[in-house]
Write a structure and sequence with these properties.
The chain is mainly alpha-helical and 261 residues long. The chain contains 13 helices and no strands.
């Protein structure tokens, strides 16, 4: 066996003490030595320590063979994990997974859509699994936080575009951010819509909606809830606050019969 006296490792004395203590147990084993050294030192026992322990604890050749088989397998597995980690750090597909996972309201659907747009194919099962693990770990410190001001600017952009509607805004917002717009952003969008319509009194679509509200209010005697349902069937969106106000103001007063159209 290798002599203990010629070891230069500063931690050798501690490791020898651990080995001696384990050797005195009723059933000393290399597995126990491995565990204790790993816990105390932070690395597996070296060959010199294993050699020393086998001698003082009288470990069988079969156990030694099994131990090195397990250790060999674990070393290979560790190397594989390290290679995968390096691959994940450099592979742009893994970078994309990290970016989506650490962004605003990450979902598998959002990740798949972003991946499809960039690579014209859906992510592999391995990459999707990695994305899900990143979700469970939570955002990294260097994650980019979605700026609320950016959402508001996006809402203004949709308002400035052709035929802005709540439905269109929600669809475009979902495509961009992977989630429905927060209530605050939706309210901002509605406010900008109203401002736009107050400036553009000739907006034919808006005039159509106003006419619809006035006609329904004066002729069908519906409740606000019923009006919202009827409006949604026609325009495929919920009525804005100002349209609801117009409907309510156009309702017949108490005791007044509905006007015929």
């Amino acid at each position: 066996m290798t002599s203990v006296d010629n070891k230069r490792d500063d931690l050798w004395g501690i490791q020898v003490s651990i080995a001696k203590a384990i050797a005195k147990l009723p059933r000393p084993s290399l597995a126990q030595l491995h565990h204790e050294i790993l816990e105390e030192i932070g690395q597996r026992p070296g060959l010199d320590l294993v050699d020393y322990f086998v001698g003082i604890a009288e470990i069988s050749k079969d156990e030694v063979g099994e131990y090195f088989q397990r250790i060999g397998a674990s070393i290979k597995e560790k190397a594989k994990k390290e290679d995968n980690a390096k691959k994940e750090d450099k592979d742009p597909q893994f970078v994309l997974a990290d970016t989506i996972a650490s962004g605003h309201a990450p979902t598998v659907l959002k990740f798949r859509q972003a991946f499809k747009e960039k690579y014209d194919e859906y992510p592999s099962a391995e990459l999707t699994t990695y994305f899900l693990k990143r979700l469970r770990k939570g955002p990294r410190n260097d994650a980019v936080t979605i700026d609320k001001q950016g959402m508001l600017r996006f809402a203004e952009k949709v308002v400035a575009g052709p035929s802005p509607t709540v439905l269109k805004f929600r669809q475009e917002f979902s495509r961009k951010y992977g989630c429905t717009p927060p209530g605050e952003v939706t309210q901002f969008f509605l406010k900008k819509i109203q401002e736009k319509r107050s400036v553009r009194g000739d907006d034919e679509e808006y005039k159509s909606k106003v006419n619809f509200a006035e006609t329904v209010a004066s002729g069908l005697n519906l409740t606000v809830v019923q009006f919202r349902q009827a409006y949604a069937k026609v325009y495929d969106e919920a009525p804005s606050t100002d349209i609801i106000d117009i409907f309510i103001k156009s309702l017949p007063r108490k005791g007044e019969a509905p006007r015929s159209s």
